[in-house]
Structure formats: structure tokens, C-alpha cells
């Protein structure tokens, strides 16, 4: 933990002064233009990948970059999506998967998750991704599952009333990305600009 204290001190000494005007504005104005939904994986850092400043991205991170389809009740992902779309008025939503994803690897390779029941339950939100990958004749292919999962999560995202309404009105675009950790590339899958 000492490196965190050193990092905070370096931030306060070197970074914050150069961006003090930005932070002063952000203290009372929060208007990100993009909702970025990515995996919780520590190797995937949305602001680093996109080279954006604080305040530009509204970030939601979940294991496997999963977005449960809309259902009655409340959950943190649905609340964040609704807030970003309805209150903040984001114009773009990105679902970003990545290479070597532990969640997708566990699913593709059929890992025993009995010792992690919460993880196993959460990963059920990728059942459609598994089915799509198998239907394409690529069961067990982690890279194919990562891409199918991004597509499936975009479909789930479009079931949320706030997103469906914004899509129907042409107020929002949905994007699917796949980040390759080893070479730093980002594959941009076809954007969704209208309700399916």
C-alpha cells in the first residue's frame, strides 16, 4: 500500500496543479458524453485506452462486462445505465470486452465455479453469448466468445427502457469494442443507432 500513498502525493504535486481548472469546473459540473461499460479486469483502464480526461467518461465495470437484460427490480448496473442516459444525457454507450478475459475464459473452457457461486450466478448473464458462439461452431474459442459477448451485452443494454427510448428517438448510439491487451488495438464492432 505505500505505493498508493506515493501515487496520491505525486498526483497532488504534479498532476492536479496542471489540471486544477478542469477539476474546479468538474466540482460543480458533471456532463460526460459517453457511458463506458467494461470488464472489472485491472488491465482494462478506459481512461487510459481512450486517453480521456476526468469527466469525459461515465464508467461502469462488471466482471465480463456483463449488462443484465432489463428486469423488474433494481440493480446497480441498471441504475447506472438509467442515470447515464436519463440524467446525464450521454450520447454514446460503449460495451468493451477484452482479450484474455477471465470470465469468458472460465465459460469457454467450462471451469468449475462451484467454489465461487456468486461469480457463477453472475456469469449466467453470458448464456446467450455461449449459445451464439456454439451456434457459430466456435464453442471453447475464448476470442470468439469475447466478441459474441459484446454483441449480446449490447442487445441486453437495448432492453433497458431508457436506452430503448433514446435509441428510438435517435439520441444515442451503442458501440461494441474489443480491446487486445497484448498489442493495444481496439476493434470497433458495428454501432447500433436504432432499436433492434
Oligomer category: single chain
Total strand segments: 5
Number of DSSP helical runs: 9
Reported for the largest beta sheet, the result is: 5 strands, mixed
What does this structure look like?
The chain is of the alpha/beta class and 196 residues long. It is built from 9 helices and 5 strands, in the order H-H-E-H-E-H-E-H-H-H-H-H-E-E. The chain has helices at 2-18, 20-26, 46-50, 76-87, 102-108, 117-122, 127-135, 142-157, 161-168; strands at residues 34-39, 57-62, 92-98, 173-179, 186-188. The chain has a 5-stranded mixed β-sheet with strand order 2-1-3-4-5, with helices on one face. Strand 1 (34-39), helix 3 (46-50) and strand 2 form a beta-alpha-beta unit. Helix 4 (76-87) packs parallel to helix 9 (161-168) and helix 5 crosses helix 8 (142-157). The chain is globular and about 55 Å long. The chain starts with a helix and ends in an 8-residue tail after the last strand.
